[in-house]
Specification:
Blueprint lengths: L7 H37 L11 E6 L2 E4 L6 H10 L5 E3 H13 L3 E7 L3 E2 L4 H15 L3 E6 L4 H7 L4 E4 L18 H8 L2 E7 L16 H26 L3 H9 L1 H7 L4 H7 L5 E2 L2 H11 L2 E2 L4 E2 L1 E3 H8 L10 E8 L2 E2 L8 E2 H13 L3 E10 L1 E3 H16 L4 E10 L1 H4 L6 E4 L4 E3 L3 E7 L1 H6 L24 H25 L4 H7 L4 E3 H6 L5 E2 L2 H11 L8 E4 L6 H10 L2 H10 L9 H9 L14 E3 L5
Parallel strand pairs: 1-4, 1-12, 2-3, 2-5, 4-6, 6-7, 7-9, 13-16, 13-24, 14-15, 16-18, 18-19, 18-20, 19-23
Antiparallel strand pairs: 8-21, 10-11, 17-25, 20-22
Amino acid sequence: MSESQPGPIRRVLVGIWNTVNFTRMLVFNLIFLFILVLVLAAIVASPGVQPLNAKSALVLNLEGVLVEQFSSSPADRVINQATGQAQPEIQLRDLMRAIESAKKDDRIDRIVLLTDGFSAPGFAALRDFAGALREFRASGKQVVAFATNMDQKQYYLAAQADEIYLDPQGGILLEGLGRYRMYYREGLQEKLGVDVHLFKVGEYKSAAEPYVLDGMSPEAREADLYWMGDIWQRFVADIATARKLDPAAVQAMIADLPARVVAAGGDLGKLALQEKLVDGLKTSQEMEALLIERGEEDAENKTFRQIDLAGYLMHSGMPNLVDSRPQVAVVVAQGEITDGDQPPGTVGGESTAALLRQAREDDNVKAVLLRVDSPGGGVFPSEQIRREVELVKAAGKPVVVSMGNVAASGGYWISMNADRIYADESTITGSIGIFGLWMTAPRVLDKLGVTTDGVGTTPLAGAFDPTRPLDPNVGLIIQSVIDKGYADFTGKVAEARDSTPAQIDVHARGRVWSGAQAKDRDLVDELGGFQAALAEAARLAKLEPDAYGVSYIEKPLTPFEQFVVNLGKSSRTEGLLRVLAPTPLLIDRQTLAKVERELAWLDRNGRAPYRAVAHCLCAY
């Protein structure tokens, strides 16, 4: 029996559909080809490496946040930069390499420091940066700083310059250190009916206080003021030394700031000049004219002869691209410590341990420098990384820790077994303590008219159900786990520091210290920045100065990521990306992001019903 033929209407509809489908594919293919042609044309037309002539200024435009390691993929960074969808990031290592190279480069006669839009999460990395600027000046070259406005971290950097200029409409605000947090107890427990149960060891372990209190505990207030006071006194002393001022006079000026602003008629620029915080008030046009007068004019662009950070890094070459010398490998542990394989900017128990393992298995690596900038996180991933540090040492390779802005709680856990621990005087460290949070929500369900009931084969069956009230036996189990975690923490610290758990406990109990205070309590070995720690790692490996290279152990770029990075180096393709990428939402997400970050502890996210946490909410 023959198959029936489709009717005329069906044939017409099928024909229309095929035509539409063909047209759709044709249009999309044409669009794709058009974009591809534009990209290839932009690449071919790319201006390449920025020229560098004699008597040039290295312009460090610091708009962005100072980081140890980029926190997003290379492709994301290029797109974000083109579209303005995320705050730019500046790697400390790039700045240090550029300044060190410029110091010896006869074509560079000065650094121009532009601090508008700059931010830093702490003072330790800032002090490394400032030290590099001072060394540049010591070579006989000039540093000039300019801004429209400056906060105290921006001013800390600017103070290292030979001359500081401020826009006449600008100002400088030195306000002191503050640490204020949101507290959720009333909202969670009174308004929502969530019962929050905190289990911890250490009266100073304050990371989880916002969920059970309405304000700071006396212990948290005492500890925070102690380490903040130390860091603030050092900040004032540093800028006073840099500007040749009396520290007491600077302190008095800050304490009397409201009255002095009023006396200056609200003119913050005039006040900064009066207090000798700056050397002059100039507009950007006047500043440009000054730099043209001191250097050489770029007649084509009608400005002073200059090169930016990205352009100069290309001139100074890629480090360790082909370096057969013995290496000191640098592994960066930046961000919260979490389970599994994590991207840069977050420390993963598996991923960071894998980087250390890679350094251990590389015969050309003779020592490891672990750069820690982390407030901690989960106990288990912290332990995974600590074990790998021990394995690196067991392989005969010395490990030196360089603490950045913060290396507290879990950040200290992954540091404690190093051969030597270096901390900046203004590093935040310590916070040796453990806590756990358990949430139950029967009162929330009561408000909805929902109850929980059932049976179990043992008294503990279903006891970890958060819809039921906390079973006292569950509380005993969790507190016992937390107690063991604290005993493990202090015991491991005692073993690593050649001490006893009882002696470590005196300085532990969750208390936070500055790097200088930690040195006094034998929690770190030496005070110094990245370069000092690097020199120590080379010394322990018996490597002669200038006879070794420094290589960062990181995940290699995929071919696609490398393609996008190369694309972003061209101003033409950057413009193309700006057109093609989506437009960002025009809302301020900072406060929402802060709340989301602090409430992330409430989400179990598939983990065990409870876990021990070594975390410090100690940013400022």
